[in-house]
Design brief:
alpha/beta, 4 helices, 42% helix
Length: 120
């Protein structure tokens, strides 16, 4: 499967970045640029959807950590959607499951965003 990236604006400061295929050393720079673009456009609440992702590597984790650091300086948050056990296990092994809120469905992540409002 080829790499695909799609960004959807939910409202003024909330976005969903959906990734499909393999997010690795070769495709992570495109993901990083998309994430930085969303943050520079005023995105404070970003959901990265890994529902259709088949593989991630350490480069992807680095992009996510960099993104969460940038968002937190602006009182923002980065949440993940992932139901693939192989991918969620990577977050558990690295301890990043304590850094990111990981939802099993996109709807769950979006609903939580709507009910929680801006991060404290």
């Amino acid at each position: 499967m080829n790499f695909e990236i799609k960004t959807e604006e939910l409202d003024d400061d909330a976005y969903v970045i959906s990734l499909a295929g393999e997010v690795d050393l070769y495709t992570a720079p495109e993901f990083k640029q998309q994430l930085l673009d969303v943050i520079s456009q005023g995105g404070k609440h970003v959901i990265v959807d890994f529902s259709n992702t088949t593989f991630i590597d350490s480069t992807t984790l680095g992009v996510l950590v960099g993104g969460v650091k940038r968002l937190r300086t602006n009182d923002g948050q980065l949440s993940l959607v992932c139901s693939d056990r192989n991918i969620t296990k990577i977050f558990e092994i690295t301890g990043l499951d304590r850094v990111f809120t990981i939802y099993s469905t996109r709807d769950e992540a979006v609903d939580q965003l709507k009910t929680s409002g801006p991060a404290a």
